[in-house]
Automatic annotation (TrEMBL):
It is a multi-pass membrane protein. The keyword Membrane applies. GO terms for cellular component: plasma membrane. Pathway: Phospholipid metabolism; CDP-diacylglycerol biosynthesis; CDP-diacylglycerol from sn-glycerol 3-phosphate: step 3/3; Lipid metabolism. InterPro entries: PC_trans. This is Phosphatidate cytidylyltransferase. The chain crosses the membrane at residues 52-70, 82-104, 116-136, 148-169, 190-211, 217-236. GO terms for biological process: CDP-diacylglycerol biosynthetic process. It catalyses: a 1,2-diacyl-sn-glycero-3-phosphate + CTP + H(+) = a CDP-1,2-diacyl-sn-glycerol + diphosphate. Coiled coil: none annotated. One of its GO terms (molecular function) is phosphatidate cytidylyltransferase activity.
């Protein structure tokens, strides 16, 4: 625990500084590195004679997506139909995969034996996350370069608040398991505690960051759905690790495991938040 806290205290300021002070190109490059490492860790969930070979589909599809989605980033304050489509695909994937996690192990037989499906799951997990973050960071970039940074940090803050609230509520009040076959420690009480903590933090920072929602109800609903999906996103990665017999996706972050272990909630939260934010 001590190592986890020290690492978090060192990484958090670096992440926040990167969100706010990297130029858009630099931010895209930094996030691309994080996403690449996530894809590298995902190769453990795919049966292949070589992890390098297993990485190729992700590199090809990911690289191709850049040429379709990047050119329009700062040319308009609204997303194109293709960009909206990516966000919708990402949000839909997390609703579907959450169902897989909740119904595990019954759902295991539907995808376990197919390498193609596992590759697809990796692409659906990481590419919509990458682009959702970029779309939010580029929002109104030509008018206010910090507006998108506040949006990205806002999502991070409500997810981090939900994680902390769920931990303490679950530890002190948790009795009813969410998905014991996947993660025995996650409880309904923890989820409720996480949602409450996220709403409090979200209400405060929406005002502090001048983030506009069409109404307080829409803001709270957006936070609620984002946080619930983020918690389920954590379960989804736990499911893949359990099937693959892996405890941590890697040991690249001292005390925290791998990249996927740290961004699992965020990979689910960003597409859902982006969809709700841009549509409503």
């Amino acid at each position: 625990m001590k190592q986890r806290i020290i690492t978090a205290l060192l990484l958090a300021p670096l992440v926040i500084a990167g969100i706010f002070f990297l130029p858009l190109t630099g931010f895209i490059l930094a996030l691309a590195v994080v996403t690449f490492l996530g894809f590298w860790e995902w190769t453990q969930f795919v049966s292949s004679s070589s992890r390098y070979l297993a990485l190729l589909p992700s590199l090809i599809v990911g690289g191709g997506s850049y040429f379709f989605l990047a050119p329009q980033l700062t040319l308009s304050s609204e997303l194109s139909s293709i960009q909206i489509g990516v966000v919708i695909i990402g949000a839909t994937w997390w609703i579907f995969s959450s169902g897989l996690a909740i119904t595990y192990p019954k759902s295991r037989c539907c995808w376990e034996s197919s390498n193609s499906i596992r590759h697809l799951f990796g692409l659906l997990t990481l590419l919509p996350f990458f682009w959702s973050v970029i779309f939010l960071r580029a929002e109104h970039f030509a008018v206010d370069s910090f507006h998108g940074a506040k949006l990205v940090l806002f999502v991070c803050l409500i997810v981090w608040a939900a994680d902390s609230g769920a931990y303490f509520a679950g530890k002190s009040l948790g009795k009813h398991k969410m998905a014991p076959a996947v993660s025995p420690n996650k409880t309904i009480e923890g989820l409720i505690g996480g949602v409450v903590a996220a709403m409090v933090v979200g209400w405060f920072f929406a005002d502090a960051f001048s983030i506009q929602f069409s109404s307080p109800f829409v803001m709270l609903l957006t936070i609620l759905l984002t946080v619930v999906i983020s918690v389920l996103g954590d379960l989804v990665e736990s499911m893949f690790k359990r099937v693959s017999g892996i405890k941590d996706s890697s040991n690249i972050i001292p005390g925290h495991g791998g990249i996927l272990d740290r961004i699992d909630s965020l990979t689910a939260a960003f597409p859902v938040f982006a969809l709700l934010y841009f549509l409503f």
